[in-house]
Amino acid sequence: MQKRLLLNSHHLSITISRLCYQLIENHNKFENTVLLGLQPKGIYLAERIKAKLEEVVKKTIPLGYLDITFYRDDFRRRDEPLAPNETKVPFIIEDKNVVLIDDVLYTGRSVKSAMDAMGAFGRPAKVEFLALIDRSYSRDIPVEANYIGKQVNTVLSQKVLVELTEQGKKEDKIWLIDNNKK
Amino acid sequence: MSELSSKHLLGIKDLTTEDIQLIFETADNFKDVINRPIKKVPSLRDITIANVFFENSTRTKLSFELAEKRLSADVINFSSSGSSVKKGETLLDTVNNILAMKVDMIVMRHSSPGAPHFLSRHIDANIVNAGDGTHEHPTQALLDTFSMREKLGDLAGKKIAIIGDIIHSRVALSNVFALQKLGAEVMICGPATLVPKYITSLGVKVVTDIHEALKWCDVANILRIQLERQHIKYFPSLREYSLHFGVNKQLLDQLDKEIIIMHPGPINRGVEITSDVADSQHSIILNQVENGVAVRMAVLYLLAGASR
User: Fold this and answer.
1) What is the pTM of this model?
2) Taking a C-beta distance cutoff of 8 angstroms, is the pair B196, B169 a contact?
């Protein structure tokens, strides 16, 4: 197995800052914008983005956690069902600008499921998607991110591994792993 | 682990403690789903479920049907009254005919103990036992223990009294299995005629004094007197049963603690439980009904996911 480091802790922090300023460019004072982190790892990223944004815009920005397990299109097509995580959306999405946040954009199916799941909480005015890592040229459906932390070209045998301190890791590290290479 | 150890839910006896915990954790998420503005998820959109009821049911049938619809499954309902069962069709023929219509799961209630087990040996579809005679009613026990867990947290070491008509109750047996797997202590209380002799072999305490049971327990799960299954006299009169085994406010007021009151329904008000207890703040009877939908969604979801 070959492992290549895509982002270390320092780079990740710079990338998150850049993403936050891009969000501020489009959402100004975040008057009608809410953040939705996708379970499981998107929520950690969303928490970091929320903290950074609040530091800059000096106001509280609503953040929710969205679990898409029950909305996935590969249910009964996997060997075993995925364990669901908590969904916590403590606000109404109706007519809000929603920024969906996830760690990796790969086939695009998770984002589609997230948009289906989000529908249970109202009809948003506008939806945008932020992905920390965009695995380009690997989409199954026509979905793209509005905000991208880092774009990488990958092949099927490769996988992006996101390690964050929130998961109990010593430091933040984002890896590109290739199972076919030694 | 995110998969059940079995492709059917025939009884609690066959489940592992990990299975029960997995169902609870999944049901926690479904309880959140059914309290959202839009209470539906698309998980089972390509699944057809037949609810096959050879015995009467209100709560269980409605609860299963709602759980199936909340999961976006296609649902067909069958009840034996007015069906070809009356013309002499066998259980296996009836079910095979239903399955020929491309049905993926069968939820079955039957008056014969072991009917779903028999079926599981002959058909491929997932089977959920919705009550088989006086044997087991696994989803009721799961929703009962899920409701207790919601109130008390971990059930290990908790004291649960099951009171009433034990001999005719499938709920009692499933509850005993579920509670013991979760580490709770179980006491059975009822008139000696309504407590089966074998019950002590399951490692439960047995008493015939309602005061003793209520004093001992954290939760009293009060069961219905099943008059429809009593073909001989097990006690002199309903009035006398109520006098000696009915749970009323006076009895609860005598305790130096508050206990949780449960009942799987339907309630015979004024017989096994008085209205002031059934409707009191200690009663979680309607929570049980709400949790029933979430728990059944979890069971159907996990079984459907494991079927390929």
Assistant:
1) 0.86
2) no
